[in-house]
């Protein structure tokens, strides 16, 4: 499919960038303004139906990032549905490496450079928390390192699909089903792993785990 353009409203999908639990991510162009974007689209299940929970998560990702509106958080530019009802979000196209790939390529990062990376992540989290948004899945896969103009090592945090938006549901423990735990174990705070009520500190815990990996080149925990 990569050699044939696919039209989706004002967007032309040109290259698949990846596939994950939430769906597919494509490189696309908004033809009216000639702007390149990354388009994340939810795909149907094997029986042809769409997951209501994943649809909610995609909408939540758009709401969270748009609500924060910070230079170190990926910009969401559009939300909509395909003619067949598949929800999608369009976001700024990021040319760079995930922090995971960045560490794999460079190994342990020199202290001053590490501080530069971590400071940007902390600034983004501070902005998110001030707006009542808790990421809940901060990890090297969800951080991009870009070269943006004269600013090397420019950070963008992505994927707010399981974020908790306290400005929308201040009393809710989670928008997911009771008893289910979402996140990535190696970067998950103990209270999150136990399914307990969480707050901004769970993101700070994850940032500490990322700091360890940046400075040592190894994840803080290796057990299953």
Structural class, by secondary structure, is alpha+beta
Number of helical runs? 5
Poorly predicted runs are 170-176
> What is the residue-averaged pLDDT?
87
Strand order of the largest sheet: 1-2-3-4-6-5
The tally of strands reads: 11
Q: State the separation between the terminal residues, measured CA to CA.
A: 37 Å
Percent of residues in helices comes to: 25-40%
Order of helices and strands: EEEEHEEEHHEEEEHH
Explain what you see.
The protein is built from five helices and eleven strands; from the N terminus they run ββββαβββααββββαα. The chain has helices at residues 52-68, 99-106, 111-130, 190-193, 201-216, and strands at residues 6-8, 11-19, 24-30, 35-41, 76-81, 87-92, 96-98, 133-134, 143-148, 151-157, 164-165. The strands form three sheets. A six-stranded antiparallel beta sheet has the order 1-2-3-4-6-5, with helices on one face. The protein has a three-stranded antiparallel beta sheet with strand order 7-9-10. A two-stranded antiparallel ribbon has the order 8-11. The chain is an alpha+beta fold and 224 residues long. Helices cover 29% and strands 26% of the residues. The longest helix has 20 residues, at 111-130. Helix 3 (111-130) runs antiparallel to helix 5 (201-216).
